Task: structure prediction
Amino acid sequence: MPEPLLEEVFKVSGIPTYTFVKPSEYTKLIVSLRTPGRGLVVEGPSGIGKTTSITKALDELNIAGDILKLSARKKEDRELIAAIPGMRDIGTVIIDDFHRLDENVKESIADYMKTLADEEDEKSKLVIVGINKVGDSLIKFASDLNNRIDTIRFEANPEEKVRELIEKGEAALNITFNTKEEIIAASQGSFHIAQMLCRETCIKTGITQRCKENTELTVSFEVIKEKVLEDLHRLFFAKARLFATGPKLRREGRAPYLHLLYWLADSNEWSLQIDQAMVKYPEHKSSVGQVVDKGFLENFLANNKELSDILHYDSNTRILSVEDPKFIYFIRNIIWNKFAEQVGYLTINFSSKYDFALSFAGADRALAEALFNYLSSHEISVFYDHNEQHRILAENVEDYLAPIYRSEAQFVIVLLGPEYPKRIWTKFESEQFKARFGENSVIPIWFKNCPPGLFDETIRYGGLEFDNTANFEAEVQRLGDILINKILEKRAESKVSQKES
Result:
């Protein structure tokens, strides 16, 4: 038997020959695969060993040759997958990358799996494979399917499993890693990352096949890490920058796409449930919520196919997932302040929850909403009551609003139309922010048909005039651009102060 080669031992693609490790869920997988009729969902992050484990389990059961494997990544397979619900006696069919299917096909498959389970069909079995929470999309279409299928979640592998993989490789190549513990920690439960780091360590130390005598590798893990990241930078930097900028770089904005990427990197998993993340990072709820709620994130990813091999977004579950485990390793090792600067943002550190809060009488809502939409389109965080209705529900409204106008917005924009002094709520709001005039944090906008009086305190401070006799859209753009420049100036000042400190 020929001596094992490095590329056969530490494999970065394909099924491991020498370093296969049974994950914790392997026994459950075996039992489920040999149970006729009952559907099976195998979900988890990429690089965790799902497909490898299924392949090995099928070999162990001696049924691998009778299996039809389809992938939602392939056009010809997608057509066959869509036709499956109309077939009978399909045998065992594995549908990989299920999350990439169209919603109508997912729904059809969900109904079919329910039928197979109810009929206890021994001649048909479906195995669904996908990223984290892929089972949730099935349950969404058929809530009663939950008790009719087995769902096996492949989580991050425990350290002892990663250690087992490395030690199998050491035995095959007759070597000993001096950086084993560092590799285990850096892998964060991913077999794929462990294979990649071990392979690079061997290459760095000149190991290309099994050694005749046991050889201890002496190399700095930092050197290996730097080399791996250098290679990954060439693969992923442009894609990471593309996602971080969103549809258009808004240097004055709050960088919502960059923050989504950062939250994904900071997550303990390979996926991000965006609603939960916004609770964790409330200061970015407004800006990130805008790009998610209005469908901008979904459209952006749909229109940028070069991102589809590394990221997937499910608009139903609002989960952003990593497709390529090497990409998660790359973004987890980014120096984020430097990356933000390379992308083009002035700063990613913000001292306030909102850039602007709008205060206005109901009669002037058209202007308020137009300003909100214009500023939001530039990824600027704006408090506007209609946009926050779902958050205000069941809250004490005064307790909810008071801190926003007192301190949570960097600037308060006051639309001083004819009705402003007459309304109860505008009186309440102005009571909260009136002390901020002295902090240069209030921007009055006077209406041309309602100029400030001689004794109006607001005339002591710089403000803007809204000409309600001019073209409305042009006036909104003019006012919006001035406000954007104000924020841009503040971002630049913040960047200087950060460097000085």
Summary: The mean pLDDT is 87.
